[in-house]
Amino acid sequence: MAHVYDVLISGAGPAGSIAALHLGRLGYEVLLVDSASFPRDKVCGDVLGPAGLNLLRELHIYERAITEQAYPVHRARLCGPFGTSVSVQFEFQSQLPEIVVMPREVFDNQLVCAAESAGVQRCTGRVCGLHLNNHGVRVRVREGKTYHEYQTRAVIGADGAGSMIARQLGPLPWQHRAIAMRGYLTGISLKPHTVEVYLFPQLWPGYAWLFPLSSDTANVGLGMDTCQYKQSQYTLHGLLEQFLNHSQIKARISKKSTLCQTRAWPVNLGPPVWHRLVGNRCVLIGDAAGLANPMTGGGIINAMFSGKIAANVLAEQLPQDRLSAVQLQEYVRQVKKLFSRELKFSRALTRIVGMSPYFAERFIQSARWTYSLFNHIYHDIHIKLLKEDRNI
């Protein structure tokens, strides 16, 4: 009989790598499968907040994962549709960085290396089929023109917004989607240690951003609801060009500037249909589960925590082979408890702010409201997440 893994994880992003690391340390045989060779680029805003950094410390990989390429953030600036701008200074209690901007190409590779150090095996390929059998799950993986098959007791779907694992389980768990484009711009004058968010009318109700990676290099991008984008007359490249040509931005870009690695990617926004996150011997985590914040589109933190929860639940269920969809509902219970309130609140707030650009401008003119908004996004969500995580 072929070798049987305890868990096969499809997708080596933060969700999959955290799950693999945790299970590997517990002594389980884990195979981590990803279609890319690492290090690899990934479309993202590259922002890591307090909860994510705290989880890295909890897993004792902070020093390994957060390299000198991580750029600390101390402030945020929000620019409204018609010119109003408000800046917020974050008040952190720790001397360590609480928010950093770090390229996913570097961060994800560090997490994969940490998982491999815990004994996790890795292979390059794309999962293209699942078949339940008497021994667990037979997983078919395509690498170029070659196909391989692996036997495993359980599968974790961490394969992102276009998750094949989610499609194999039946009706998709996510209900809302956004589309984002990101590039790296060098040769721009940036406000030190400040993330900048722009609510331009052309992107409404989406937003554009400048997230600094150094004094003159930024992650620049935009994101908007998929339905809204399909109804618009613009392309993503056209919208990004409009943003960079806006008077507030263009004046800060040098003639020798370069824009590279512009790529688009879909984002599955929460909250998901919770009961669809599990199937027989299968669990969905991260973007594959539709856990990205519907207000910001950010998904790294929720992905990491969902990976940790999935690993914990599987570690409890694997010894007795209690891996049916019903028996894996404990995972659903825990992720719902951890994320449901945040995702519902963020979706409601998005609807309120998104009523019209004029409505948003009025809100931004209230400095108290803007401070509360940024404090919620970059602080309160994370503190509540950490408290809830300890109570699970």
Short descriptors:
oxidoreductase activity, acting on the CH-CH group of donors, NAD or NADP as acceptor; FAD-binding domain-containing protein; FAD/NAD(P)-binding domain; FAD/NAD-bd_sf; globular; eight-stranded mixed beta sheet; 18 strands; seven-stranded mixed beta sheet; 12 helices; alpha/beta; FAD binding; 392 residues
Outline the structure in words.
The structure is a single chain. By secondary structure, this protein is of the alpha/beta class. It has a domain at 4-69 and 101-175 and 269-356 and 379-391: FAD/NAD(P)-binding domain, CATH 3.50.50. 36% of the residues lie in helices and 29% in strands. The protein has twelve helices and 18 strands. The chain has helices at residues 14-25, 50-58, 62-65, 104-117, 164-169, 226-231, 236-245, 247-250, 300-317, 329-353, 357-364, 367-391; strands spanning 4-10, 30-34, 47-48, 71-72, 75-79, 85-89, 100-101, 121-124, 126-133, 136-143, 146-157, 176-188, 194-198, 207-212, 217-225, 253-269, 278-279, 282-284. The strands form three sheets. Strands 1, 2, 8, 9, 10, 11, 17 and 18 form an eight-stranded mixed beta sheet that branches. Strands 6-5-13-14-15-12-16 form a seven-stranded mixed beta sheet, sandwiched between helices. Strands 3-7-4 form a three-stranded antiparallel beta sheet. A hairpin with a 2-residue loop joins strand 17 (278-279) and strand 18. Helix 1 (14-25) runs parallel beside helix 4 (104-117). The longest helix is centred in the C-terminal third of the chain and has 25 residues, at 329-353. The protein is globular and about 65 Å long. It starts with a strand and ends with a helix. The model has no long low-confidence stretch (mean pLDDT 91). Residues 5-318 form the FAD-binding domain. It comes from candidate division TA06 bacterium DG_78.
